[in-house]
Structure formats: C-alpha cells, structure tokens
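Weekly structure sync, notes
Attendees: PL (lead), two postdocs, one rotation student
Agenda item 3: pending single-chain targets
PL asked that the sequence for the first pending target be pasted directly into the notes so everyone works from the same version. It is reproduced below exactly as submitted, 211 residues in total.
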Amino acid sequence: MATPSTAPQSPGRRKRTEMKRAAILDAAEELFVSEGFEVTSVDAIAARAEVSKRTVYDHFGDKRALFQGVLERSGDVLLTTIRAAIDEELTDDRDLREALHAFAQRVTTETFPSSVYVNFRRLNAQAPPAPRLPDGLDDEPERSLEQRFTRYADRGDLHVPDPRRAVQHFIALTMRLALDVIDEDPDLARNTGELHALIADGVDAFLRAYR
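Predicted structure, written out during the meeting:
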C-alpha cells in the first residue's frame, strides 16, 4: 500500500503540492457525492483532478484515507463557521433569548443550505464501507456550544446541571427540528418567517426548562 509523501519541499514546490492536494480533494468530493464511495475509483478521481493515479496515492495512501480527508476538510469548514456564529451571536452583552435565537437562525438559514453542509451530510450518510470521521471530531460543534452554555451557567443566566444535555436539548428544539422540517418540505427553507417562528418557539421552550 502506498503511503503519503512527507519529503521536505521548497516553498514553490510546496505551493504546487498544496494545489494538487486541493484539486484531488475537490474531485474526490464531487465524485463521492454523486457516485458514492464504492463506485468511485481512484482512476476517476485522478482524471477529474487532472493528476496521475500515483499522485493521488502519494498524497493520501488509499481511497479510504482520501474519503476521510474529504470529510475532515468539510468538517473543519463547518466547525469554523459554527464557531464564528457562536462568537458573534452568543455574546455576553446581548439578551440571552435574542442571542440564542440569532445563533440558531443563522445556522439554519446560512449554514444548513450551504453546499459544504449539504455535501457533508451526503458523505457522512453513506453506508459502510465508507469511512466515518474519527471519534470525537463529529461532535466538535456541540462541544464548542457546550463551553458557551457553561459560561452562561457560571454567570447565572442558565441553570445547567449537565451542559452536554442542555446543548442536546437546545439543538433538538431549534436547529435539528428546523432541519427535519426542511427535509420534509424543502420549500420551507425559503420561508424565513416560518423558520423564524419555529426557532423562536424552540428557544422559548429551552429557556423555560433551563432558566
């Protein structure tokens, strides 16, 4: 089995290497989403990326590692997006109800419809033998939110005996519920008024339980 190359590189060659790696990941994501893990071949990925098959193996070792690399890249983008929403919406100087609603609304109306999230869901839903994210990485967004809820509890804004459970309840009452409804009726994704009301009801239910 081939192993990824780790030889030292000059700055110019490093840039070309990074561009090839990005092209391989882009091509692999497109094919894994449209064709599936089992059907997609390394030959097809190499052709789509306009690199040699050996180059694909030099960068990733095998198809499973490449699939996982695609998942991890998408996961990193989503985690960065959600952390930004946490930092910018769940601020200390903002009314708690308003902050929770703004955060959930932003994730629902901006992150969920994004191509990154849509493709991530399709990739992560593929049946074995498609790989999964490494243990711990798939719940990083929840852990980031848990830290903020713990801060709210320390300030006395929330009564949170179990921060992880509180996060799970908040997500279930707002963003996950919205996502389930959108899955059933995709047209609802364009109905911001209906989503606003759904999320507002979820935030109110959460605050009744945790204040």
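Discussion points:
- The longest helix spans residues 63-89.
- Residues 84 and 90 are 10 Å apart (CA to CA).
Action: rotation student to compare against the earlier draft before next sync.
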